[in-house]
Amino acid sequence: MSAIGDVVWPEADERVVEVPPTAMGERIDRFLASVFPDLSRSQVQRLIEQGLVLYDGRLTRASQSIRPGIAIQVTIPPPIPTELVPEPIPLDVVYEDADIAVINKPAGMVVHPAPGHARGTLVNALLARYPDLAIGGEVRPGIVHRLDRDTSGLLVIARHDHAMRDLIAQQQARRMRKLYLALVVGRPPESGTIDAPIGRDPRDRLRMAVVPDGRPARTHYRLLATFGDYSLLEVQLETGRTHQIRVHLRHLGYPIVGDPVYGPRRSHLRLSRQFLHAGQLGLFHPRDGRWQEYTAPLPSDLATVLRQLSDKVSYC
């Protein structure tokens, strides 16, 4: 990491991936976008054009057809050193006052600047909407918790230091309530708890996995409906590990539909991202301790998938 002013920026990100047998014949740009979900296909193509992707140690082109066993090296340069820039990006604000804001984040929006995503993030949008938002040297000003780029739904934002401390304390004490909707492959039992530690996957350090020496992680779920070979779950987090729901449901044997990292490789459902939506959020307001609950409806892309499956539905 390197420090510029009050902002800490990461160094270049070096990644290596070996082509698995299941990817035989795929285009290299499509393959890399699927194994690195923080990179879009167009970003991969730009990296290739810049000579930052090596296929078997050589420069390549976006249309390169890949073969199993070949190593691909990707170098992602750090963001251009600059101050965080407010950007007037439209936000779906579910609630706001002088202390907090609750945002319904769309799929595709990155929460904070990162390699490959220096601009256009939720943080950039927040700085434009709330110019007095305290930065305090953090790359994620006001961000209490995060959602993956392609997970939609509710996030609470602290607008000053006191609110930040209070909300983080609620989260650590597990007093904050976060409910998600997830469509998975298969039909799990009607309810259950997944209690399994999560850490870096020893076989692929870019992924997370259930590992014996990982950090404790607990996820509760409840079956809401079945759609033939698919099931709609209400999921509640007790802890907040990276990719927790995605990893835990895969570990249980019911991967999330559309998940490019932990889900089934192919699905006949037309969905360009994982079916995971943070639809309900409950918390105690930092100013007066009142319990408050917020909801966000299912986005149109996910609602469309459910409508397509509706002729097979049987509610539980």
Please characterize this protein's 3D structure.
Helix 1 (28-35) crosses helix 2. The longest helix has 12 residues, at 161-172. This protein has helices at 28-35, 41-49, 122-129, 161-172, 244-252, 300-309, and strands spanning 2-4, 7-9, 13-18, 53-55, 58-59, 71-76, 93-96, 100-105, 152-158, 177-185, 191-195, 198-201, 204-210, 218-227, 230-237, 276-284, 291-295, 313-315. Strand 14 and strand 15 (230-237) form a beta hairpin. It is 18% helix and 32% strand. The protein contains 6 helices and 18 strands. It has 316 residues and is α+β, with helices and mostly antiparallel strands. Residues 1-10 have low confidence and may be disordered. Strands 7, 8, 9, 10, 11, 14, 15, 16, 17 and 18 form a 10-stranded mixed β-sheet that branches. The chain has a 4-stranded antiparallel β-sheet with strand order 3-6-4-5. A two-stranded antiparallel sheet has the order 1-2.
Portion in helices: 10-25%
Query: What is the structural class?
Result: alpha+beta
**Whole-number radius of gyration?**
20 Å
Compressed to H and E, one letter per element, the order equals: EEEHHEEEEEHEHEEEEEEHEEHE
Q: How many β-strands, per DSSP?
A: 18
Distance between the termini: 50 Å
Give the low-confidence spans: 1-10
Main sheet: strands, sense, barrel? 10 strands, mixed
| Mean pLDDT across all amino acids | 87
The total of helices stands at 6
Rough outline: globular
Beta-strand proportion: 25-35%
